[in-house]
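Feature request, filed as a ticket because there's no other form

It would be nice if the structure record came with a short human-readable summary line next to the tokens. Right now we just get the raw output. Example of a typical job, pasted below so the devs can see what we mean:
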Amino acid sequence: MKKVFFGMAAAFALLLPGVAAQAETTIRVTLQLPETHPLGVNLSAWKTCVEAETEDLKIQIFPSAQLYKDNQVPEAVGSGAIEMGTASLTRFAGSVPAVDAVYVPFLLDSAEKVGKFTAPGSTARAAIDEAVLRETGARILWWQAFGRTIYLSKDPIRVPADIKGKKVRTFGKLLGWTAEALGAAPTLMSGSKQFLAYQQGAVDVGITGVTAVKSRKLHEVMDHLTLSYDSTIEFVAVMNNDFYEGLSEANRRIIDDCGVKVEKELRDSIFQLEEDALAYVKDKINIIELTDAERAEWRAATVSVVDRFVSEGGETAAKVVEEARKY
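Raw output as currently delivered:
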């Protein structure tokens, strides 16, 4: 009887590793922002959606760049050092210059243009998604709308002349070109380093989004917020492609479907989230709204950036700009 019992126990034990592996596949996700930021909320919504649909996958989120800075995410995810992460699209520009199309000043200067460019299945987006996967090994699961670019500063900025000669925090190569076109000196800096940089005066001006001003409390260390709205900031949620392909077809479908769902939720709400963030900081920082004439000065001052982007960005960059100009 004992032999039968131990034989059954041994057989059961052999099954356990497979069962456990299937039930406890963990997807670690590195997030650059606090979980309270709209992108953190968006990622948490995806986690909830996935875990509600399958018991096989568990999502573990590491917020506020605990594991990797945003410039490290493409390599960390592409190499498989971590299964998944979110980062500004521009962080993939080293391998795929075309991703910076979203940061070309005034190329996507309306909600309608942004919507058409970023829509799942659009020609421009498909070209970028495919190039990122091919060149980095990271699969874009969904795009995360961050909002439009604004400028933070110690001194008020209304026209390009106000920024000339200043040190400007940027978070991508093309934004550096924009700063140069404005006569400023760009300083590439991760989002998580902004607060101290502004507080200590390491830079004079910062390019970011309105929602980050609230979530990172940047209004505590800067005095003015200029609503330039000259480009759109896009983050992407990416997963190591080998890890993705190793999942069951059912789990891949759940991951993809939940990504589609949360992407739409964030895209549909981003402009309201910007308005909510502005309402929150309006009595904490001076908000500068540009006139049409002032905005025309910004447009004229940065017109050379798109030509430089097409010239240096290669065939895919030219293709996505051509598509964007049709909108």
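Something like this underneath would help us a lot:
The mean pLDDT is 92.
The radius of gyration is 22 Å.
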